[in-house]
Amino acid sequence: MVKVSILTVSDTVSSGTGPDMSGPRTVFIVNSSSEKLGGAHVVDTAVVPDEVDKIKNVLIRWSDIDKVYLILTLGGTGFTPRDVTPEATKVVIKKETPRLLYVMLQESLKVLP
């Protein structure tokens, strides 16, 4: 089994003032596509505000302690000063995977052109 965790980064969702529309949908997509994804299964989800330290702490716990194979981050990728998911992620990762990003973008454009 490929352990997957999903982190939703959103001030609105984490404060309880808005629903998490992307997290549950992503869990469904991953789990329903498990066979195509080499046995991938979501083992954990979390929601944090747009704060570098909170994002980093979850990413480090999942990767170093829980030994999650794939972490999907949702949100926090806009152009406002509070959108810091890419910056927080880059502090934690050892290697970027631009080809994976390209494939994910390419596939998402099939659904949302």
UniProtKB/TrEMBL annotation:
UniProt keywords, alphabetically: Molybdenum cofactor biosynthesis
Enzyme Commission number(s) from the entry: 2.10.1.1
Gene Ontology biological process terms in this record: Mo-molybdopterin cofactor biosynthetic process
MoaB/Mog domain span: 6-101
Gene Ontology terms for molecular function: molybdopterin molybdotransferase activity
Pathway assignment: Cofactor biosynthesis; molybdopterin biosynthesis
InterPro entries: MoaB/Mog-like_dom_sf, MoaB/Mog_dom, MoCF_biosynth_CS, MPT_Adenylyltrnsfr/MoaC-Rel
Protein name in the entry: molybdopterin molybdotransferase
Transmembrane regions listed in the UniProt entry: none
Enzyme class: transferase
